[in-house]
Amino acid sequence: MGKIIFYEDKNFQGRSYECSSECSDLHSHFSRCNSIRVDSGDWMVYERPNYMGYQYFLRRGDYPDYQRWMGFNDCVRSCRMIPAHQGSHKMMIYERPEFGGQMMELTDDCPSLHERFHWNDIYSCKVMDGYWIFYEHPNYRGRQYLMRPGEYRRFNEWGGMSSRVGSIKRITM
């Protein structure tokens, strides 16, 4: 069971809302979010309702202002707890949409997609085991995208604005 607390103001001040499960629309609970406390669990918070817009991965800890979670603004409109996964991780990435072109298998973190595979883009993927995060830039920087088990035929299915992926990290306990 996870627990995350959203605060309207910086440094855990102002109106707050406590959440222990996924929520597709937080708008009725607070108008802005300037600080977050994660008491337990791993979470993805989203800039827009229905798990859309910028995504931010948060682990247990205190985030006294939105810059601490690499936020671009004070807008948080949905959240999703990431289930604990203790097993192996496996993902197939493809250089073309619809699982076309060259395929590579990943079972561990990849700090630079370009250095490892000489690719800068992923157009489709299949997540077999575990939860992963795609990062827009190498060394786990830039926009983040939660990759849950399943098939993603095109980059927009994981919320990507483009096919650019610089690094990939497993979510481990």
Task: Please provide a written account of the structure.
The protein is an all-beta fold. It is 3% helix and 47% strand. It has one helix at 113-117, and strands at 3-9, 13-19, 35-40, 42-48, 52-58, 61-63, 78-82, 90-96, 100-106, 124-129, 132-137, 141-147, 150-152, 167-170. It folds into 2 domains: 3-82, Sandwich (Gamma-B Crystallin, domain 1), CATH 2.60.20; 90-170, Sandwich (Gamma-B Crystallin, domain 1).
Order of helices and strands: EEEEEEEEEHEEEEE
Percentage of β-strand residues: over 45%
CATH C-level class of the largest domain is Mainly Beta
Outline type:
elongated
Question: What value does the average pLDDT take?
Answer: 95
Strand order of the largest sheet: 2-1-3-6
CATH homologous superfamily name of the largest domain? Crystallins
The CATH architecture of the largest domain: Sandwich
Number of domains: 2
What's the β-strand tally? 14
Evaluate the radius of gyration: 16 Å
Report the helical percentage. Answer: under 10%
Helix tally equals 1
By CATH, the topology of the largest domain is Gamma-B Crystallin, domain 1
| Low-confidence blocks of residues | none
Supply the helix-strand structural class.
Answer: mainly beta
Distance between the termini: 14 Å
Main pleated-sheet profile: 4 strands, antiparallel
